[in-house]
Amino acid sequence: MTELEELIGDVISAVGGLSPPVDAVFFESGVTSVMLPALHEKIRRRTGRDFPLTAFFAHPTIRSLAAYLDGPLAAPEPLNDRPQGLAAARRNLRAQLMQRKG
What we know:
Blueprint: H1 3-16, H2 36-47, H3 55-58, H4 62-70, H5 84-101
Helix pairs in contact: 1-2, 1-4
């Protein structure tokens, strides 16, 4: 297991209390779409790499996501304190959860 694969596994464990194998599909291992914003933010901050939230769907295993993050995208970029997309995703999620309650 590479350091990056281990880091991603640690984040999944911290956020969701799960320990999927490196080749298991996230969504078949208990990761839910509700967890994605938190996973994205923690991985983004710990790696210093800005990547789209949709990468979890295009690269749905720890191994494939790690390979993607190590690929051409890999040059670390300075990160904003709060990406606009994440804030909007959280507002949308909150609104959806409120609709389900009421």
